[in-house]
Amino acid sequence: MKSLFVALVGFLSFIYLLNPTLGVFEFLPDNLPLVGNVDDATAAMVLLASMRYFGWDLTGLFLRKPAIAFGNARA
Q1: Mind giving me the DSSP string for 16-35?
Q2: What is the pLDDT of residues 53-74, one digit of tens each?
């Protein structure tokens, strides 16, 4: 039951991010200064969290990787 709820919430956040209504339906209008994109950021966070629940962890894409050292060169 929990997996179904997480999948449903993730799907709804994905649909919200697609914005099929072209901005007609939004919780916070984007033209409000400083808070206009909070709903979009929250939907993205919920989508990433639901993907992580099912084993698709995309947060590793944003980590800094060490430089590759060739031979005896030190990085």
Answers
A1: HHH-TTTTSS-SS-TTSTTT
A2: 999 888 777 777 776 766 665 5
> Cβ distance 17 to 40 under 8 Å?
yes
Instruction: Please say whether the beta carbons of 39 and 26 come within 8 A.
Output: yes
CA distance 43 to 57: 16
Tokens representing residue 58 in the block: 């995309």
Predicted confidence (pLDDT) per residue in 14-39, tens digit: 988 887 666 666 777 777 777 777 88
Task: Give the CB-side neighbour count of residue 54, counting CA atoms within 13 A.
Answer: 16
Residues near 51 by Cβ (< 8 Å), separated by ≥ 6? 10, 57, 58
For residue 24, the Cα-to-chain-centroid distance in whole angstroms is 22
